[in-house]
Amino acid sequence: MTPLLRHLPRAAAFGLLFVAARVSAATDPSFVLTGTSEQFGSYFPSYLANGYFSTLTSVRGTEPTMGYMVATMDYAKDDIARPAAMPGWNEIDYNPGGGWLNSTRVAKEIFTDYSQTLDMYGATLSTKYRFAYANKATDVQVTTFVSQDAGHLAATRLTITPQFDGSVQLTFPIRLWSEHQPRFPIGKMTGDEMIAAVIASGQNLDNKPVPTPDRAAVWYPGVVRIESNGGDTKTLTLWLDGRAEQGVAVAQAVAIELPKGLDVEDVQLEKSPYKLSLNLKAKVHKGQSYRFTKYIAASREGWGGNAQADLALATQARKTGFDALLAKHQAAWHTLWKSDIRIDGDAKVQQAVHSDLYYLLSNTTVGTSWPMGACALTPGYAGHAFWDSDSWVFPALLLLHPERAKPIVMFRHRTIGPAQERARQHGVKGTMYPWESDPETGKDYTPHFAYGVFREVHVNADIAIAQWQYYNATGDDAWLKQYGWPVIEQVATFWASRVTYDKASDRYEIHHVTSPDEAYDDVPNDSFTNAVAQKALRIAVKAAKKVGAPADPQWSVIADKMYIPFDDKNQRHLDFDATVPHDKITWMGSSLAWLMYPNLDLPMTPQIRRNDFDFQLHELKEHGDDPNEMMMVMLAVGSAELGDAQGANDWIQRNLVGFLKPPFNVRTETVANNAGYILATSAGFVQSFVYGLSGLRIDDDGLTEAYAPSLPSAWKSLQLKGVHFRGKQYDITVEHGADGKAHLTRKAL
User: Fold this and answer.
1) Is 245 annotated in the active site?
2) What's the pLDDT at 6?
3) Where is the Glycoside hydrolase family 65 N-terminal domain (predicted)?
4) What pLDDT is attached to residue 13?
């Protein structure tokens, strides 16, 4: 503590420290992303979210954008389950007399002195510009957040400073979205039928220029049907009750706060099939600033109450005030950032890590059993839970934020029933979790055109591995017995019924599977599938011992005799059985890099690991096209395992190019597409540091230094701050030693 602080009362000293910390973080450019008018034509929206609900960002900061609520799904006839877009809550519109702000074309000469900043440290979006149109100018500032402190609340504040005297109009709508058209029966269409239907609708599935989203013809939102709504011009409130199509009930409410002393000329309530709004007319004076605040409360069945309950929340938020709500929201985010990844030596990498952590944290809940959709709280991949949840997002969060990783493993326990029913339908035992699980019900809603991925059964082993990772990281015996073991046991039962015994070779094989490199469908003995199945079976034996339950003796027998295809001549693994030609052009080129990924980390000699890695790179070059970022982010981990710090750095740098869409570093699935928000890629990038450069693995012995740490020569250090492991916390640092090698140290907190 400095001499000055030493002489202050403890509370005052703490206050100054807190302010200093906020100032330091606020000025840290790695937490700040800013858009300018140069990006008007290529603006790629980000989103604000708190794990429970979201809204997209927009150029003006005031336009109506779609948001989504966790696991709130639409179940239309013959369609897949898809996220129902919640009524649009963020919009405020303003008319100084010559035209509405949100309807005026976006141009540099109209929106001057423009900047829009995403402060990731406090998860707040701030937009500033001068709106100069029809011979009138107004300085505009917009601040929006979705509360991390109070999960049901969000708020947006519009501050206008007109450069004229006169009357202005403002509207505060809730947009009641219409159903997407055309709506295709994707639940029963073949791939060819779907493509033909998309073309017939005047659309296509080609990559689109920003900001038009790719594959919107397939990943469109579901609908919330409004059952009742209303508003009050005296209390300046709006409310609605609705229901996602054949899904859960949804409610929202809005309370408007006007500037004190505002000369209000008129307030009207507008109700239509598409909009519920409070419309205001008021007199303003040149050079005076006016703050208009819109407080939003949202809920869904199973999380919160109805519209009247939300109305009480929104009106209470108005009493509390914007500044107080914002301060609590930002403080909650500051607490989250106590667990962080800090890089000394590469500002661009540091900023990318922070943006990836921001997107992961924005989409996590605490104390629930909801998973994370592949594309977060957006309609991408229809909001379904894939192996992304268990093998990508979960490990990335586990050490830094175990309470936010936990809902992912709890989801699999909650949905054991549907997985058991699905196993019976496919003639196997135990649980057969879907490739695409509905996050609300856990049922299989894989599109019919992707029906073949019912063979991508490695997801079942991925789930068991995540359960065991959670146990190993927490040491929670009671959790393992009540929640983890039932999942692990049922997955092992599945594999024991799914394998085939080859008597001639005295080995177990797994036939008719889809490789993670999904162009290879219905192949025998995919190496990754066989390897994760082997690990899941061995986990089941260990878990049974921990909980005092009997283990099926066949689990060990099958695991010990599991066939993993290998090329003896070239001393490397094969992607799958040698009878299948490896000659297709795919997003990945090969799936051998999966064998090195931290959640599996298949044991092999350093030379075989090198040979596998070299083959992966060769095939990515020869048989890869517009490579998938899920593959690309793994290559840094592979390089680190091989002790190649420069190679790891090269792949880290490569993952900053093209995949991060400006201005807010939204990761897309490939460089060429702009479908956006593929959370697995953010999680994979985070794992490059947590498990790749650190060399750490979560295993039965603890948090083990499985590989020597790696550190790019230009970096001074890599620090994993606030790591949680078995009830303790650590700061883990990788630095260059006097011997020139990277060294890892742990400091207990």
Assistant:
1) no
2) 27
3) 79-298
4) 34
